[in-house]
Write a structure and sequence with these properties.
With 399 residues, the protein is of the alpha+beta class. The chain contains 13 helices and 12 strands.
Length: 399
């Protein structure tokens, strides 16, 4: 094989890789590849190798390392964030802090972990995706990621305001719910011991509430101390909807542990234009059934019935019958009864004692008839049936 340079009139010459061979004693040539697009230094290096020269010695500058990194999942999530305009919602101007925040969001969606994990994923030597390359982040440590979160915190109010304008409107439903999470450490100012939803009662935790629209799109989030009761967070959300977001009429939806009778009386009923949807407790439903306001006959033709009661003035009570749940309970009832019987049988076996025949009623004549010796002065015997104790008389002067 050899490299041939073929003139091409006014155009640059063609660089061809050719091979010579013989057919019937005649020398033939054929072109193997066109190397015209190669740079001159590469063509010259290949020409020297074909002429028998040794290749250039290997070194750090003579090799190009190419690594294949996963890209599709990063491109999908980051593309969705940009389609939602989350990057411009965080900050209108591109910056390294905004890219770090976007990198943490993408990493949290793809592989939830601590802040040390995305720091490793962005480092040039330990990266395992194209996330850092797309966001122009060559490296970042955990401290820089925490600083980016501090940079993001003052922008939370403006972001929530933009989200409220985008997803909420007058008379719309607003869903609100709470959860908690525990953490290690003792230096969080909001960390308290409270009702743990993670089954970690001995550790500090924080409580945070989330406001969404009717479709579940997040609008605002707020963090509370770990021992904050659910109903105490409702007034802050009402003020946020009315004052910050400027909604004059809104319907707040929450569970029965959050929207209590006290919150309805003190916060919701006193706010004009604010309605609510919640559920009654089991004890309240039982009282309605005992008063006759809630009857099984209401669900003979429909699964939904509206009732009224003097205990709930100005409120609409909607009773819903779930046939699937009723069927499941009917199916599980025999199983629960059988399981209860098995547990009760275990208790009965564990507490059962062997039967002993009652002691024979004996007296001094019976004792003598059985061959016992004479009773001594002052000796007594017991009657096992009457639980009494009888003493024989003793001669005078003896006690």
């Amino acid at each position: 094989m050899y490299i041939a340079t073929v003139p091409n009139r006014k155009s640059p010459p063609a660089i061809l890789l050719r091979e010579s061979f013989r057919i019937d004693g005649k020398v033939k040539n054929r072109t193997l590849s066109n190397l015209s697009h190669w740079p001159p230094d590469r063509v010259q290096a290949l020409r020297q190798v074909l002429q028998g020269a040794s290749p250039a010695p290997s070194g750090p500058d003579s090799l190009e390392i190419t690594r294949s990194r996963p890209h599709g999942h990063v491109a999908a999530v980051l593309g969705a964030l940009r389609q939602l305009q989350l990057d411009t919602l965080i900050d209108q101007h591109p910056s390294r802090q905004r890219n770090l925040v976007l990198a943490m969001i993408v990493a949290r969606i793809l592989d939830p972990a601590s802040k040390l994990a995305p720091a490793r994923a962005l480092h040039a030597e330990t990266l395992h995706s194209t996330l850092g390359e797309i966001l122009d982040l060559d490296s970042a440590d955990a401290d820089e990621l925490y600083q980016a979160m501090d940079w993001l915190l003052p922008r939370q109010a403006a972001m929530e305001q933009s989200l409220a304008q985008r997803h909420l409107a007058e008379g719309a439903l607003v869903l609100y719910d709470l959860t908690s999470t525990y953490f290690e450490g003792r230096h969080c100012p909001l960390g308290r011991r409270g009702h743990s939803r993670d089954d970690q009662p001995g550790k500090l935790q924080i409580v945070f509430g989330l406001l969404t629209n009717a479709q579940g799109c997040p609008v605002a989030v707020e963090v509370f101390e770990g021992n904050t009761a659910d109903p105490k967070t409702v007034p802050a959300q009402v003020a946020k909807l009315r004052e910050r977001f400027g909604l004059q009429r809104v319907i707040l939806v929450g569970d029965r542990g959050m929207i209590t009778s006290a919150r309805i009386r003190e916060d919701l009923q006193t706010t004009p234009g604010l309605d609510w949807i919640t559920a009654l407790r089991a004890s309240q439903i039982q009282k309605l059934a005992a008063a006759g306001a809630l009857q099984r006959s209401l669900f003979d033709r429909t699964d939904l019935a509206e009732i009224t009661h003097p205990a709930y003035p100005g409120e609409r009570l909607l009773a819903c019958y779930n046939p699937l749940l009723a069927e499941e309970r009917a199916r599980k009832r025999p199983e629960l009864l059988a399981a209860t019987e098995r547990e009760l049988e275990k208790i009965a076996v564990a507490t059962r004692r062997p039967c002993r025949p009652p002691a024979r009623q004996a007296d001094h004549r019976g004792a003598r008839r059985q061959g016992a010796g004479p009773l001594q002065n002052g000796q007594a015997f017991s009657n096992s049936h009457r639980r009494g104790r009888f003493a024989l008389p003793t001669p005078a002067g003896q006690h």
